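pinging the channel bc i need a second pair of eyes. not urgent but kinda urgent?? the chain im working w is below, pasted from the shared doc
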Amino acid sequence: MNGVTTNLPSDFETDLDVEFLFPKDSRTLWKIVLIGNGAVGKTSIRRRFIGHGFNPVYSATIGADFSTYVVNLGSREIKYQIWDLAGQPHFSEVRQTFYKGTNGALLIYDITNRDSFKNLENWIGELWEHNMKGPIPLILVANKIDLKESGLNLVPRQYAEYLTRKYDKKSRENYGFGIHLIETSARTGENISMAFQILSIQIAVQQRFKQLRMKPS
């Protein structure tokens, strides 16, 4: 599957995929960060994913907010530590602390806010520089697709596809994981769970990639 994704193909998650990627009956703890400019919907995505619904009233995150959530992938239990990081520039030093030990990220932009898209590469650089692990899996999340018909000046999808392909090629060749693009709506819940599922697979792929590279030839 290439890096540009809206819907998972029907055979994306198979028993063979899960058996290969996860030890049998394993329990996995992953730290996930949600990053992107302020007001792109990070908190709404986190709340929607953990079952708290959508709150239409915007409230800026101060520093960081935190949730835990457990999901099952096949017979495998995955516990997420989900860190929702404030997107305003004056929190940049605070964010550096929370990046440490991160396994993967949702990189979120608002399709009605071009500045939030233009800043994505800066977010990638910040994440990969400060997480203490180097490049890690991330999913590019085009949020607020419920506003597609609003008449606002939307970010063209082909811009996001180009950026995704740029990083996907480098990541697959050098680090063993793919970069994917998914369109979401925190308001309606569309594709929110899928974004976390795709990220989970890519984290597992990277870990398996590292294990195979460490084996003596």
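so The beta strands are 27-35, 64-73, 76-85, 104-110, 138-143, 180-183. and The CA atoms of residues 176 and 209 lie 6 Å apart. — does that match what u expected or am i reading it wrong
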